[in-house]
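Tutorial handout. Part one gives the primary structure; part two gives the three-dimensional structure as tokens.
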Amino acid sequence: MTASERAIAALPVHLRRFVVAQDYAAYTPRDHAVWRHVLRRLTAHLAGRAHPRYLAGLAATGIGTEAIPSIDEMNVKLARVGWSAVAVRGFIPPAVFTELQSRRVLAIAADVRTHEHIEYTPAPDIVHESAGHAPFVADPSYARYLQACGEVGFRAIASAEDQAVFEAIRNISVVKEDPAAGPEETALAEERLQAAAASVRYTSESTRASRLYWWTAEYGLVGPLEDPKLYGAGLLSSIGEAAHCLTPEVAKLPLTAACVEVAYDITRMQPQLFVARDFDQLFEVLEGFAATLSWRRGGDAGLDEAIRARTVNHLALSGGRELSGTVVERVAAARPVAPGLETAYARLAGPVLVSRGGSAQRKPWPGEVVVAFGAGELPERGAFALTLSSGLALSGFAVGDGEVVRLEGRLDGRSVPLPTWALLFSSRDLRSVAGGPADPAAWDRWFGELASFAAGDGEARARAHKATALPPALAALYGEVRRIREGTGVSAERLLAIRDAAARFTDDWLLRAEVDELLPGAGAAPAHA
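Part two.
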């Protein structure tokens, strides 16, 4: 079993379906030329500009400048620092990306940017994910921050509109990397993103968590405000951003938790960046932000956030029971129930998954679930009538395992509307309300077919277009230059002949740059204007 196969086997099933084979042999000579050009320019430019741990981290994680890295070879190096990597295709759902990161697994996009977007691409690619994120994983302190950031992002509550924005961003990144996409398709993708952004009702916890990640792990600077160093993966993997970010045109702001209120545009270079005092400050800011999340706060605030989100989240009840579903209502209690909790009961719409310790205990319940808060024990079976410390009086017939029929309730002497058939649980408090189901694997097992993620026709079509966009004669020239680089040897006359042949392809500057570098007496490849 290879290192990559071990990394994939260690993942739960619900995450494995997002993993793809790297298919190293499918990378073309021009793909390797793109990688080489970007990495050589970046490492030359970043010397003295990136945090000192960056260049050392490239070697420590198996990343060289001459060829696209093998994820399997990277995994051999990453295993030494307790991490691993898996190949994925383009954008994956935020909850999947953050869960992988919380498990110390880097999700590395297997695709390579086109040479037309060599300076910057909004689409995830292997340059960004491997050369940007992986090197700092070799630093124990920063690796802990990445893992903690993944945990926070995974637990944050996302809104229904967040999914629409994600799909629109994913779509525009595919369109912009598709050589066959025309102006009309690009315009439609941009309009879709604008419409999705306009549909957002409020800034969700998940959006705020993504902003913190963006302004630190993706586009962060560290050190003195007047002379910061680069450490964000987006800066370290983009020729354009790496050159632009330290210019006076980009505002440098001290990093605080307020960065989560600053939106970003993934399709453009950033107009401002945040500068951390040092890596220790990252933990301070992350902890301050995490303390504001429903995952940590629970109680009324958590219920209100879940209701507003209109998405599947999970409640952590007293006694260890967890309920995963869509919270649709909370009704105020006559008196406080617990610190931060003044709710008599909450309702969840089905389906609802019941679990303990993140492990499902039964098939999903198709109907409503009622959680009654306050001191008071519900019977396992038979008729019951009791009043909880919240002031909520309940009566009905317990069938068993939480199932109740003929459920009725009164609060402050008034009848309250409750489902006549439901699951009913009581809880003395509500310690946490966190994003997504408590048992993602079980939820995926039951509902994965309905909520499945696929690469989609657009991504498959874009990859096919990129594979066939290169004229065969030009592809042959790239192949010959690649073989020369691998040590077959060639005369200067042949190199000049290749350069003359490449001149016929006026839109392709990269091959000429590769040949110029190989010519006797040539220096580094000229920068692409």
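Part three, for discussion. Residues 449-455, 522-529 have pLDDT under 50 and may be disordered. Residues 29-46 form the longest helix (18 residues).
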